[in-house]
């Protein structure tokens, strides 16, 4: 699973049968790359979503015969993309950089 942001809807009038009744959304990943995903959830531009890929993408759709390798699995209610998780220093496993450098 990945976290992406919805940037718009992709409109296609001519589609193969396996994508005939799917909403297609344009997503932006963390690197700024654009992706296209099927949307069984009903997202809006600006929403942060998590996606499922591969065969899990097909299974996320109402009809598992839908031809997709990337589907939106849900809308994230709260997400701060600039927040980065840091290791818990209370466990004592991590030494400060200065101590590691001196030990080497």
From TrEMBL:
Localization per Swiss-Prot or TrEMBL: Bacterial microcompartment
A Pfam cross-reference name: EutN_CcmL
UniProtKB keywords: Bacterial microcompartment
A single Gene Ontology CC term: bacterial microcompartment
Region entry Disordered, spans: 83-104
Protein name (database record): Carboxysome peptide B
NCBIfam families found in the cross-reference section: carboxysome_B (TIGR02704)
Domain of life: Bacteria
CDD domains per record: EutN_CcmL
Alphabetical list of InterPro entries matching this protein: CsoS4B (IPR014077), EutN_CcmL (IPR004992), EutN_CcmL_sf (IPR036677)
